[in-house]
Specification:
heterodimer; A: alpha/beta; Rossmann fold; four-stranded antiparallel sheet; B: mainly alpha; two-stranded antiparallel ribbon; 2 strands; about 70% helix; globular
Chain lengths: ~280, ~270
Amino acid sequence: MSIVIENLSFTYMKKTPYEKKALKNLSLEIRDGEFLGIIGSTGSGKSTLIQHINGLLPCQEGKIVVSGIDLSCKKPDYKAVRKKVGVVFQYPEYQLFDETVEKDVGFGPKNMGLKEDEIKERVRESLQLVGLNVDEIGQKSPFDLSGGQKRRVAIAGVIAMRPEILVLDEPTAGLDPQGKKEILDLVKNLQKTCSPTVIMISHNMDEISDMADRIALMHKGELLACLTPDELFSRKDLVDVAGLELPVAVSVIQKLRDRGVDLGQTVCRKSELADLIARRVKKC
Amino acid sequence: MLRDVTFGQYYPKNSFVHRMDARVKILLMILYIVTIFLVQTYSGYIATAFVLITTIVVARIPLKTVLKSVKAVIFLVLFTAILNILFYQGESTTVVFSWWIIKVTDGGLLFAMQMAFRLIFLVMGTSLLTFTTTPVELTDGIESLLSPLKLIRVPVHDIAVIMSITLRFIPILMEETDKIIMAQSSRGADFSSGGIIKRAKALLPVLIPLFISAFRRADELSLAMDSRCYGAPVKRTKHKVRRISVRDIIGSIFYLAYLAFIIVDNSLLLLLI
C-alpha cells in the first residue's frame, strides 16, 4: 500500500509570535517498494514531512493516507500506523535507554503487545539484520558500545517492529567514511529483506542519487520537484533555486562540457559516468 | 507540544517598554510588587489596573497573551480565595452564611476578593518583565544590580553566568525532550494511558536519554568555556554597555507617581477614620 499526501500544510506554534510555516500545500505520492530520497537545506521542512508520515505531528490541513490508514480524519489510528512505519531519527543512538541491548531492541515489539518468545525471536533476527550478534552483545549495556554499534542497535530497535515502510533521517550523519558505507549497505539490505519501501533524508548528493529511485526536493516548506536523480540534476533551474551541491558525476560532466566535450546526457552514478566516457573514448 | 509554554516567554516586539533598561525594569517591578501590597482602597485597585493596562498597551503585547500567564496560577488564586472566604472573618463581621464551624462574613468576602486581585495583578505585572526582556538582558541587569555585593566577595559574575546558562538550556532541553518523545512514541511507547505508576514508568525511556544528553551537553559546554579561557583573572568588558535613557526616566516617574498615589490614598483613608 502506498503513501498519498495531498495539499498538506503545517504551521508550528500557531497564533504566537513564533509562528512558522513549515509545510506549504505539499502533494506527493510514494509508491510501494520505492526508495524515495528527500533533500533540501536545513529548515526546508524535511523532518516535519516525515513526522507526518507516522502521525507524530497531527495533520492540520490537507490529506494524508498511509497504507490505507487515513491520518487526516478526526481520530486517526496512530497505533496502527506506527506499526507500519518505522522511523529512524537523526542520531538515533541518543534514544537508547534500557539496561541491556536485548531489552532496548525489544522495546518496540513489547509495546506492540507481543509474547516473550516472539520478542526474543525478533530481537535476535533484527540484530542479525544489522550485523550484530545477540549472544555477543545482547546482555551488554547499550552505553558501553562503540558509536557505530550504538547506531546499529538503535536501527535494530526500529526494524524489530517489522515496519513495511522504513523512514531514515540522515542515517549517516556524524559517521566516518567506513561507517557511512556500512550503514548505506545496511539500508539497501533492509529494503530487500524487511521493509520494501524506504524514505531517506540525506545531505550527501552522491549517497542519495546512488540509492534513490526518485528524489523529492524541498525548499522553504514547498516541494519543488520529485524526479529521478538523473532528471533532477539535469534541471539547472531547480539546482540553482535550491542551491544544491552536485553529485561528483554531474559536476564532472559539466566541467567536461565547459571544456568542449559534451557527453550528451546527465548521469548521477559514477559507474554510469565511467561507461559514458569509455564509450566516447572508444568511438574516437 | 512542550514548546507551547507561554508563561514568562519573551515576546519579541520593539516597543517603548522593550527598549527600557533591564535594571530599571527589574527595580520598577520590585516597586510595583511592594505597592500592590500597600493598596487598600477601591480607587487604589483602579489605579493599579490603570498602571498595568497602560504598561501592557505601551509594551504592545496582546492582552490575551498576558492573561494566559494568569492561567498558570489560577488554581492558586482560587484556592487562597476559598480559604479566605471560609476561614477569615475580617474586621466587619456581618455573617452572610454560616454552617458548622464555617462562618462567611462580608469582611472575609471582601478580603478574599482583594487577595485574588492582588495575586492576579502581581502575576500579570511580573510576567510583563519577562515578556519584554530577553533572558540575556535580564541576567545582565541582575548582575549589574548585584555588583555591590562583589565588595564582600560574592561571585556575582559567576552567578549571572549560571543563571543565563540555565535559562538558555531550558528551550534546548525542551526540544530534546520533544525529539525523544517522538522517537519513543514511534516505537509504540504510550504516555497517555494507564494508572499513575504505569505512566511514571512510561517516562523512563524519555528521562534516561534526556539525562544522558544533559550531562553530555554540560561536558561539552565546560570544555568550550575552558578553551576560551573562562575564569581567567582579567577584567571583562561588556559587549553591550547599557545606559539610562529618557525612556527609563519616564517609566520610573510613571511608577513613582503610582506609588505616591497609593500612599496619599491610604493616608486619606486614615484621616477619614
